[in-house]
């Protein structure tokens, strides 16, 4: 029989209250247990001494017999100084997930494209102004010829419409 020190939930909906119990690891979470060795009330403030209450003598006995605490109970025992818990390190804790990385890459690519377009737009008017300064007469002459060609065509169509 594998014995564990774990939490057994009680309390009302949205108002949890836990018993720290010694139970067979195969029994249900809130089911039959061998002994209650403490309580945990997460509703209370973190500094409150009634948040976690432990029966230190009984916990030491059950640990000596071979009971294995769950992660949460092991944290309580470490805080109380009953059983030291090896600190777990998760080097990827602050790292974003794969999809978040993909979104960040797409966003960076769009920003880079926007910056390139802005640079191209900023350079284009400078080039057009330089071209306009070099040959202003050349651009005006074809425009005047185009207007002269359009005027007779409009007059001819008006005459045909009247007749």
Secondary structure elements and pairings:
Elements: E1 3-12, E2 15-24, E3 35-40, E4 52-54, H1 56-65, E5 68-69, H2 71-80, H3 98-134, H4 136-162
Parallel strand pairs: 1-5
Antiparallel strand pairs: 1-2, 2-3, 3-4
What descriptive keywords fit this protein?
163 residues; alpha+beta
What's the arrangement of strands in the largest beta sheet? 4-3-2-1-5
Note the main sheet: 5 strands, mixed
User: Unreliable segments (pLDDT under 50, ≥5 consecutive)?
Assistant: none
* Nearest-integer average pLDDT: 80
Global outline:
elongated
CA-CA gap between termini: 112 Å
* Count of extended strands: 5
Helix and strand composition category: alpha+beta
Name the helix and strand elements from N-terminus to C-terminus, one letter apiece.
EEEEHEHHH
Helix content: 40-55%
Oligomer: single chain
Number of helical elements: 4
- The rounded Rg comes to 40 Å
Fraction in beta strands:
15-25%
Protein architecture, described:
The protein is an alpha+beta fold. 52% of the residues lie in helices and 19% in strands. The protein has four helices and five strands; from the N terminus they run E-E-E-E-H-E-H-H-H. A five-stranded mixed beta sheet has the order 4-3-2-1-5. A hairpin with a 2-residue loop joins strand 1 and strand 2. The protein is elongated and about 85 Å long. The relative contact order is 0.08. The model has no long low-confidence stretch (mean pLDDT 80).
Summarize the structure.
Helices cover 52% and strands 19% of the residues. By secondary structure, it is of the alpha+beta class. The model has no long low-confidence stretch (mean pLDDT 80).
């Amino acid at each position: 029989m594998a014995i564990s020190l774990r939490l057994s939930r009680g309390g009302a909906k949205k108002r949890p209250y836990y018993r720290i119990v010694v139970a067979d690891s195969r029994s249900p979470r809130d089911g039959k247990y061998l002994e209650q060795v403490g309580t945990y009330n997460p509703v209370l403030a973190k500094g409150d001494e009634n948040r976690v209450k432990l029966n230190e003598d009984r916990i030491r006995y059950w640990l000596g017999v071979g009971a294995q605490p769950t992660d949460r109970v092991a944290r309580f025992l470490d805080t109380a100084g009953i059983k030291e818990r090896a600190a777990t390190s998760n080097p990827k804790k602050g790292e974003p997930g794969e999809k978040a990385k993909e979104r960040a890459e797409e966003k960076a690519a769009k920003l880079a494209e926007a910056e390139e377009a802005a640079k191209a737009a900023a350079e284009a008017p400078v080039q057009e102004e330089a071209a306009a300064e070099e040959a202003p007469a050349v651009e005006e002459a074809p425009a005047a010829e185009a207007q002269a060609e359009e005027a007779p065509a409009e007059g001819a169509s008006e005459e045909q419409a009247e007749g």
